[in-house]
Amino acid sequence: APTPSPTPDPATGAAVKAMDRAHVFHSWSAQGLIDPLAVAGAEGAYFWDYDGNRYLDFSSQLVNTNIGHQHPKVVAAVREQAAKLCTIAPGFAVDVRSEAARLIAERTPGDLDKIFFTNGGAEAVENAVRMARLHTGRPKVLSAYRSYHGATAAAINLTGDPRRWPSDTASAGVVHFWGPFLYRSPFHSADERQECERALAHLEETIAFEGPQSIAAIILETVPGTAGIMVPPPGYLAGVREICDRYGIVFVLDEVMAGFGRTGHWFAADHFGVTPDLLTFAKGVNSGYVPLGGVAISARIAADFDQRPYPGGLTYSGHPLACASAVATINAMAEEGIVENAAEIGEKVIGPGLREIAERHPSVGEVRGLGVFWALDLVKSKETREPLVPYNASGPANQPMAEFAAACKRGGLWPFVNMNRTHVVPPCTITEAEAKEGLAILDEALSAADAHTV
Ligand code: PMP
């Protein structure tokens, strides 16, 4: 593990935190109830505070530091680009932007060969929806319950997490349907094959009742991430592809979280042999060293905007610092076999390790995932599968998960906890020794969850 630098200084940490509490308004939080950790530095799979505590990052922050912290090649690329050209409007052709687009297009499936750059995932989703509506001339977009697509206007309404607020007015034309998820099947299927068939039939029925001629797009996360890392059954995505083709519906795969190595392939779609019409990406494209996202566009949809303008854009689309970090990240991932590492560690260490842990802990209902993209579904009882905490629990109702997370942190592991799940999503660069270290801490911390089983 790396040596923390700078030297721990609790007084500095306290000052950083006091200033944060005075002036920073945090995401997704009751401002008065949070206690953010003051971070002093990070390297590889670790970060540390000012008090001498170091954490193995099993969250990859927000599942984005696929290449780990402070990769020297990426840091150098940003530094060099800053010295050369910090900013230029999207309308110009520049070397790093062209190169980033080429490297991405080479890796996306099929003919997704044109790249529209954004500053992150939500903007990618907004623009994919805009493209689909312009292309088809149709208004509606279908998305799945138990999904996350971002926190901007269209993206948050497409999001099918079990959460709704008065600010999110169910924007005109968004229709939700159920995707497949055998462990908590809305179709009460007996096996994966039945779940796949029933989920596809349900989608067909939804389309029939909405009217296919009114549907611009179906958007799905290839492997839904935030809502629980639910690997779709074989045949499901191919089935959705076929339905989209039949009705002239644009198929959008959201690979913001699952893309760029997370699942052990460059894109999760590679596992299923499916090519969407539009593919959204962000996070792993440059591990978040500079904000970047985008939409990879099929030849057919790109051609639609050949002789008429695409009415959309962003001041910082294809920002040189972001593109330079993407070029360096993708090249380093290829040179250092980082995607292959994610596949191997997942298959040989994390998957088997989690399954073994699950057998010994009454609170672990299901283990699912692939690559470095895993979830433990925590339950009150393996028999009933009742979630360890209710959806959207906070305060005392969320105590079991809060205790589990605290136990992880005491052990030196930073977990990704969401509702009744903990996700095991370390950087794609994680070594076997680091993965085993993390699993051992997780194993011990799960006793805190076990204490709440019945
Ligand atoms: N789509 C997916 C699948 C995501 O996981 C996320 C972020 N968690 C987003 C979109 C939104 O990305 P951003 O936060 O960069 O706007």
UniProtKB/TrEMBL annotation:
What SUPFAM superfamilies is this protein classified in?
PLP-dependent transferases (SSF53383)
- Decide whether keyword Cell wall biogenesis/degradation is in the record: no
What taxonomic lineage is listed for the species of origin? Bacteria, Bacillati, Actinomycetota, Actinomycetes, Kitasatosporales
Instruction: List the residue ranges of the region (Disordered).
Output: 1-14
Origin, by domain of life? Bacteria
State the similarity comment.
Belongs to the class-III pyridoxal-phosphate-dependent aminotransferase family.
Keyword entries, A-Z:
Pyridoxal phosphate
A GO CC annotation recorded here is:
cytosol
Under Gene3D superfamilies, the record lists: Aspartate Aminotransferase, domain 1, Type I PLP-dependent aspartate aminotransferase-like (Major domain)
- Biased composition annotated in UniProt, kind: Pro residues: 1-9
Query: CDD domains given for it?
Result: OAT_like
Q: What is this protein called?
A: Aminotransferase
Entry's Gene Ontology molecular function annotations = pyridoxal phosphate binding; transaminase activity
Species for this entry: Streptomyces sparsogenes DSM 40356
